[in-house]
Amino acid sequence: MHLANPAWLWLLLPAIIVCMRMILPRPRPAIPYARTQSIPLHNKTWRTMLYYLAPWLFSVVLLLLVIAIARPRRNVSEYQRETEAISIMVVVDVSGSMEALDLSRETEDGIEYLTRLDVVKEVFTEFVDQRPDDLIGLISFGGYASVLAPLTMDHNALLQILDTVEIPPPFQDPSSGAIVNEDERMTAIGDALALASSRLRDAETESRIIVLLSDGLNNTGILEPMQSARIAKELGLRVYTIGVGTTGHAPVRITDASGRQSIRYAYIEIDEEELAAIADLTGGVYFNTLDEDGLSRALATIDELETTPVRQQMLERFEEHYGMLILIATLLLCACTFANVNTKRRLL
After folding, report:
1. Which of 16-30, 157-171, 279-293 is predicted least confidently?
2. Residue 280 above 90 pLDDT?
3. Cβ 149 vs Cβ 161: under 8 Å
4. Which domains does the chain possess?
5. Average of pLDDT values for 197-222?
6. pLDDT surpassing 60 at residue 37
7. Among candidates 161, 212, 162, 216, which has minimal Cα distance to 185?
């Protein structure tokens, strides 16, 4: 049992002064007179008895209210547990090549067409659910890198943001037919890795890692991937790189000018050597995933490799007792007031 707000007990000092004023006898008057208390009553009832006890009961009411404000409570579920807390910045590729449908799955109703980004989002959601105590952030990159979610333990908000991640659709110039936002659909791995390193630099946890998921070849940006990898190494960060898919022809959904969709094969190149070099330089591991299960196994391996035991004291639930004190004080106050008013009327 303890008090949630013990500072309110200072109110006991003025409360005690008020109680003493009500209870202690007052100085005798200069001119003696017959007190109404000395006049015998014909009908002595419980209300007349409460009239004489009223100062004492009002004092009890006042003290109970002060204690109630201090909120007495008892902790009913206290325990310790070990958690594995790390800081993870997930960097997801949203370049045009992530529209490839080579990770689609077969179902009873036929083929469920899924882009590489769709599969990454599903597996990443499972990964987040398995690490409820970690600080996890999210960065997306195509031709430009942007922080979608800083390091946070609010994983519900993080997953809601993840659902909104999309690949920038191509916009064609009506006159020439050329794609005007081609720079947004390119791949700036170096810039994204440097941005993730800057966000993890001041993280308080001992273990800080970057999970980079990409299916492309770095073809834009200010920094080269290996430059950013050296920055991550200097900051003590490990980078785990995951190559989504392989180099070769992959099915892609194409929308023509009239809005009709068709599936065609496009050549997609992934620089596995550079992704492996980034991981090796920073002390991480490179994974190549050819299917959805491979991506799940890669994140499960990272989950096993990166653990930092932290003992935490958890205070789950408190049993509050101030409500009962307020109830008792209210009942006493009502009884005293009722008896005091009625008895005065009878005495008069």
Report:
1. 16-30
2. yes
3. yes
4. 2-26+35-76+318-347 (no CATH), 82-312 (3.40.50.410)
5. 87
6. no
7. 216
